[in-house]
Every structure is written in C-alpha cells, then in structure tokens.
Give the backbone structure.
Amino acid sequence: MAFVEKKLPADASVVDKSLNWIDSRFPLSKLWNDQWGKYYAPKNFNFWYIFGSLAMFVLVLQIVTGIILVMHYKPDANLAFASVEYIMREVPWGWLVRYMHSTGASAFFIIIYLHMARALLYGSYRKPRELIWLFGFAIFLCLMAEAFFGYLLPWGQMSYWGAQVIVNLFGAIPFIGPDLSLWIRGDYVVSDATLNRFFSFHVIAIPLVLLGLVVAHLMALHEVGSNNPDGVEIKDTLDANGNPVDGIPSHPFYTTHDIFGVTVFLVLFSAVVFFAPEMGGYFLEYNNFIPADSLKTPLHIAPTWYFTPFYSILRATTSDFLYVVQAGIAAYVGLVYLKSKLSAITKAAIAGLGLLMIIGMMPFGLEAKFWGVVLFGSSVMIMAVLPWLDQSPVKSIRYRPRWHKAVLILFAVAFVILGYLGVQPPSPVFNVISQVCTVVYFGFFLLMPWWSAKGTFKPVPQRVTFESH
C-alpha cells in the first residue's frame, strides 16, 4: 500500500501540520479518539466512576516518584536504611518525594478498593465485562505483589520482620514449602540477597507486568463499553450516526469530570503528605524508622493496613476454628447438592474436594498454619470468580431487593473490621471477632449464587435514568 500523507491548506497551523505528519506515520489521533476523545460513555456516571481515572493518576505518580527515589536508594542491606535517611534529610525535597510515594501506596489501595466497591454496587463485572474484571483482578494481584516487594526496601524493623513472617508462610505448604521460602528469600534468612531480589521485582518486573495489564484492562473496557449505575447497555440504543443515544464523548465531558476528581484528590493527598504522612502509624509504621535488627523482634508484627483484612483471616485460622470450617464445608456441599443446578460431575468434584479438605483438617491431618495460608490465599482468589457467582437477573443495586444492600453493607463492615483487627495485637476476643468476620466474608461469596437471585427485583428501564446538574 502506497504511503499517503493528507494534504492540508497552506494556511494550516504548525500544530495541525505536525499532527498530520505524525498521523500519517503513527495512528496517534485514531488512538486518542478510539480510547478517549470520541469514546462514548454513559451520560449518567456519578462520583463512583472517578476512581478509575484516579487510579491511573496515582499509578503515574508512583512511577515518577519511584524513579526519583531509585536515583538515591542503595539496594544493599548495609546501606539501604541509611540511603532512605539520606533521601529524607539531604536530598533536596527528598522528604516530599518519599512521603508522596509512601502516601501514594496507601492512596492507591484506597482508590482500588473503592473502584472494586463500585463494581459490586453496579454489577460492572457481569456479562459482557467478565474479562475486564479478570484483568482488573490481575492488576490487584500485581499491586499486592508490588507493595509487598517494596515494603522491605526501607530496611526498617517492621519491613524486615514483616517480610520474614510473610515469606515464612510459604513454608507451611507441604513438600515444596521450605524450598519455596528459600527460593523467595535467596538465603536461609531475610538478607542482602532478599533485598536485591525484592528490589528487582519492585522496580522492574512487576511494573512492566502492571502496565501491560492496565493497557489490556482499558482496551477490554473500551471494546465492550462502560457500565453505568443503571446497568443498562447504552449500545442497544443508537442514533442515526451509530452513536449511543444515552452516551456522551469522554472528551471534553468526562475529561473535566475527572480533572475535578483529581483536584479534590490532590487537596486531600497534599493534606496527608504535609500534615500526617505516617497517618498515626498506619501508612508508615513507627518501627520502620528503626534500622532492621535480626536479633530484636518487635512486640507486634503486622503488615501494612491494605493487607490486614486478609492477614486477619490467616491469623483467625486456629485449630479450634477448623471445626467451624469443616462444618461449613459439609453444609456447603449439602447445599450444592440440594439447591444448585450444576451437573452431576461438577457436584461430585465439589463433594470430593470438600471431603479431602475435611479429612485434611482432622487432628491427624495438616496443621492449622497450612489451612490459614489456604484461607488467606482463597480470600483473595475468590474475587476472580465473582462474575460467575452472581446470579442476579439485574446488574445494578438500584433494582435489587432492599435487603441486598444490607448484605453488601454487612460484607463491607466485616471487611473493615478484619482490616482493623489485623493491625491490632492478637487477643482472645479479637480472635473470635475475626473468626466471625471470616465466616461473613466467605459466606458473602460462596452463598452468592443463591442470595443474589432471591427477592423481588424492580423493573430495569430500557434507557439510562439521568438528571442534568
């Protein structure tokens, strides 16, 4: 195919000529229009739809501040802590960059959790957006890995011992556990080899995967179109030009919408960075301002707050709690047999897996530590199958029975309580509360095929409901 460059009027501006030169060699304008400029989004977006663009903004912020920090950081067990102190005290504006990066990590997870909450409210994971959800879930896993690997880098007390505890969890896996822990650490204890490995993953490997997943997430989103608070497919009603009647171009309408959201975020973000960067020890633990000491264990070791809901589930899994888990598995298998429409083979497979788990939890079976790791991992991975667990005939919470909202609120409260208890020292009372919240957490997902389809649903409108501001 012959090369053709669009001819412009002689009085065309320098900008138009430059853009035309690029477009004839690279589809810049096409990419912009397809992915944003002329991408039609539902006109009834509310504030819940700000968090996607905010996540992109914070990702860029983390990359930029991370690059600046790497210029001065020393990935060496003998120099890492001192290099962070050097950044804080000697590098011009280094303290600001470090606090922006640490606060940005917590802000990232707050935004991602709210972004996922919006998906739960409006069914954004439902058909045809299952792949969008899976890409988003993979992004969440990458963020957890990125945060974990970066957590060790300051080489403070909590960083060192937190990494030691988390890596040792892999040792509970039968047969391969000890070798797997050794491979992750690169040594028999958390040491310089561990620091170098974590640094490589945090700075190079995980960000590359993360960026690829973000691109895939956005491409999948723009291929099938955005969901909206009504759960109505706007592509079902098109105008004479083939554009959705209930859609508006993302630019300039949602560009200004998102800029406003970013502005509000920056005000709150700046307030934290300048006035409370440690956030009472939740964003930056006070023990992390003490150099790592392999001979002195902190009184209470806990991960950063965004891991604590899952950490609480791990800690709640005691030998006594396994009896509750066994009873729950037996009841669930019975429910599947009596109430589900699955094939006989699938039911038999679920029953076989349940039986193996019950036997494995017997006193002569695998220890509670192993099952804690299983529940810890399952509490994260179960989110991936959410599109297939939800059997509701409607997507949005607006048209579901009112008690469905109560179920969502109960789940959110249990999740927050698990997060809070994860940063507290263990106690018998807290342990019981954690166990109750763990049952609520797993019950929300595992019972969803039944409770999501129950009740009287409101009729869903043919077109989106919208009130101009």
